[in-house]
Amino acid sequence: MKKMNKVLCGVLGLGFLLTGCATVSSFKNTKEELIYNGNVATVVGDYVYYANKYAESIDTKDAYKEAAKLAYLARIDSNIDAATKKDYTPAEFEKVGSEVVGHSKNYMVVLGDYIYYTIPNKDKVEDAEGNVSQKYNYTTLYRCKLNGDKVKKIYTTTGEVSKIETVKHNGKYYIVMLAGTDLIKVAIGNKVSAQIVAKDVTSVAMPETYEENTFGSTLDWNGYLYYTVAKTDPDNQDITGTHIYKHELSAAEGKKVGTVAKSLKFVDREQDVLFYTYAESSIPKTYAYDSNKTIDVGGEQVAPAFTVNDSDQFAVATIENITKVSAKVVDGKTETARTVGYVYLNSNTLMYTTVAGKSGAFTLKNGESTVENFKLLFVDEREVYVSTAEGIYKADMSSAFAGEGGPVDLVCTKIVDMLGLQEEGNYAFDGTYIYYYADLQALSEEDAGEGEDTTEDLDSGKFLYRSHVGRTGADNYQLLSKTNNEKRMTK
After folding, report:
1. Is the pLDDT reported for residue 451 higher than 60?
2. What is the 3-state secondary structure (H, E, C) of the chain?
3. What is the pLDDT of residue 125?
């Protein structure tokens, strides 16, 4: 059947140019909800879909063509652990698409029988002054069937994407992006449509994409995006301040809910708790705002204004990568998640804050060594996962969230030793494996053969690996990508 499909594509030519031809076998996605595991891989049924290689830099047409040779959409059968050597491309490897899926703005989700993914923009774009240029740092959203068929370009941004998530509201799914200063929503599913929600946006608070395999992740939220626009006056350059808007996702436009005198910027959101910085002085402070909270004003329940009171101030002046920490609550046969606090980065320090307001800094310890220069990947219940250029670690934070605050030495388990692990902190997690990019690892002497060079013909660049989160050791990894080196293919 695959051979027949290829023949038809060659014969019919242009008729299949826009829709594409199936490249791999079809199957039915049995999950009705969105599937998202992180920005490098998505697990659907018995398959792992992923970007085969990470393209370091794309700024020309030739660079895109070169990257497309390996950074395309691929898949493997996820049940290959016992049959595949750790340093060899699985024999079950299949190429699904031809566009560059592995890149700095990589994002992919599955809904129904379609996979939605981003690629670097290949089209020339026109700015507000009518200047036309090539902007590979902009993003184009595509979708295709799970067999690679019916490829469709959905939307191309006119700015660089700084935030992208997928949310559900009133039974419909939307991909929401902040691209440059445009806030964009794209309805996905049976009918696909795109709309610019607001322009001149300086920051946005949107919920994170639901991850089924990460405990505490949820589809529940209040349906409102919050965003900021700078207060300006063309006749007075000294005017400062920030307008704050909220936009119900099913509405046509946003509604202004307040204005503050200085610069306010949303920096993160966990479910319906918004985090923002406010530059009331030369040193900005961080505040938390519960967007579901109401107060009584003249007998009417209304949302409180965005304040800069000390009572709303968060633990530190500046934060990034804030992540909710959850505890399991069991009532009979029902298991729910209760928020116990947050972890976040303050500069290069991993910190925590409990719902009771207790805060402190973590020191990550692996034996006698301190883990430094790491990226916060994700939190699953009360386990935190971080990566360095040499490996991935996990640690249980339960003691901190049951304590009285202050510094905590966090005992870390090193899941895997890797050379050249991607420092951006891209990952995916399916509940059993963590997926990540790293340099192609050297062969063991046993695999290379006696007297052979174990580093011979190492392809440059970052390839996709996975490691079992319940195991440890130098051998706890598995190459998933196809390289240019035929010696690295499983026979």
Report:
1. no
2. CHHHHHHHHHHHHHHHCCCCCCCCCCCCCCCCCCECCECCEEEECCEEEEECEECCCCCCHHHHHHHCCCCCEEEEECCCHHHCCCCCECCCCEECCCCCCCCCCCCEEEECCEEEEEEECCCEEECCCCCEEECCCCEEEEEEECCCCCCEEEEECCCCEEEEEEEEECCEEEEEEEECCEEEEEEECCCCEEEEEECCEEEEECCCCCCCCCCCCCCCCCCEEEEEEECCCCCCCCCCCEEEEEEECCCCCCEEEEEECCCEEEEEEECCEEEEEECCCCCCEEEEEECCCCEEECCEEECCCCCCCHHHECCCCCCEEEEEEEEEEEECCEEEEEEEEEEEEECCEEEEEECCCCEEEEEEEECCEECCCCEEEEEECCEEEEEECCEEEEEECHHHHCCCCCCEEEEEEEEEECCCECCCCCCEECCCEEEEEEECCCCCHHHHCCCCCCCCCCCCCEEEEEEECCCCCCCCCEECCCCCCHHHECC
3. 81
